[in-house]
Amino acid sequence: MTRMHAAALIAAVAGSLLLVNGASADDVYTVVASGLDSPRGLVAAPGGRLYVAQAGEGGPSGKITELRRYWTPTPQQRDIVTGLLSVGSEGEFIGVDGLTTDSNGNLFAIMALSESGVPALGPSRLGHLLKVNTAGVTRDVANVGDVNYQWTLGHPELAYGDFPDSNPYGVLIKGSHVYVVDAGANTLNRVRRDGTVEVLAYFRDNAIRDSTPTCVTEGPDDALYIGTLALFDSIVLGPSATVYRVDPRAVDPNDESRVMNVATPWATGLWPINGCTFGPDGTFYASELITTPGFAGGDVVKIPFSDPTSHTSLAQQSLLFPAGVAVGQDGAVYVSNGGAFVPSGEVIRLNQR
Asked: Would you say 219 and 165 are in contact if contact means Cβ atoms under 8 Å apart?
């Protein structure tokens, strides 16, 4: 299943969205960068830099943008990568999505979809994991999308009529490995240093539709934490998104039973999650795409690591389809706001934690 199956409905109501509780946006957040095209992944990097992935508006319009001194009134903004493919899909534009950074400041970016799933485009780098050095030079690391497309082709019993499918969306570097979550295949991948791609975990279906994992981050216990969209279930049944825990020491890509069962729920009862991260104090943050069945009230939720049942709203349901979330060098929470279905997105800083 692709990341959004209610896109037509979302697009129909997007123009009339209001803040759910009447909160003033100026009271809740400060705009750091504006005029962005479908901003998605967001990552704070060494050296006082914040990077945001722009999925674009069709054609070669995808970008990765750097924000320097982003905590000041006058941050510096420049595009370090341009010309990435952006394609229209189910009412939104899809292109470069997740971002992560290593300790040397190199970026890893994941492209959405797969070349196998969109064969008419030919070689397109869709579904590819890219490495971006500090000078903005990119190189291919692995074709994650095609690996997952073939994996789903071999597992038709898991489909809701949508397999084969692949839509890599979230990415995390941890040690010598890069981890990718695929919102189409509903999988967690490990990409080894030599470019080998392994399927480590499958995220099981919800009551109505599939789980749709969208983000992966590392917890204080060195485990991986994966947030899910659970869009249809949340619309019909109320907040149904889950944060799963996967212990990298317990995975075995060669054991099908382990792949199907290694992920365990950590936090439940959330609205559709579109991005997640841990702060340096171990607090978990997740962006919630919506917080009402009427597709309004995007938010960021704060969850203490010691008590995953405690969910605190940070944005007062004042956001518009938020995506990536990151904790900055200054300790503030930053969010990609307007990640889809709006003409101009932003990076914002929440005014309180």
From this structure: no
7-350 CATH pick, 2.60.120.10, 3.40.30.120, 3.30.70.380, 2.120.10.30: 2.120.10.30
When pLDDT is averaged across residues 310-320 and rounded to a whole number, the result is: 96
Enter the tokens of residue 232.
Answer: 């249809």
Compute CA distances 94 → 61, 169, 251, 300, whole Å.
11, 10, 30, 22
Torsion, CA 248, CA 40, CA 340, CA 70, rounded to 10: 140
| Residue 2, pLDDT above cutoff 50 | no
Task: Give the list of residues 6+ apart from residue 308 with CB closer than 8 angstroms, or none.
Answer: 243, 266, 267, 284
Distance CA 193, CA 170 (A): 18
Query: The tokens 């060669």 sit on which residue?
Result: 254
Give per-residue burial for 25-48: e unless 16+ CB within 10 Å, then b.
beebbeebbeebbbbbbbbbbeeb
How many other CB atoms are there within 10 angstroms of residue 120's CB atom?
Answer: 5
| Structure confidence at residue 15 as a pLDDT band (50, 70, 90) | very low
Q: Hey, what amino acid is at 326?
A: A
Strands (E) in 90-186, as ranges, are 92-94, 96-101, 107-111, 128-132, 138-143, 168-174, 177-182
Domain boundaries, the chain: 7-350
In this prediction the pTM is 0.94
Separation of alpha carbons 233 and 236, rounded Å = 5
Cis bond before residue 164 (omega within 30° of 0)? yes
What digits encode the pLDDT tens for the residues 178-227?
Answer: 999 999 999 999 999 999 999 999 999 888 899 999 999 999 999 999 99
* Residue 200 in tokens: 């480590």
| Nearest by Cα to 269 from 215, 323, 308, 320 | 308
Closest to 66 in 3D by CA, of 95, 29, 109, 26 = 109
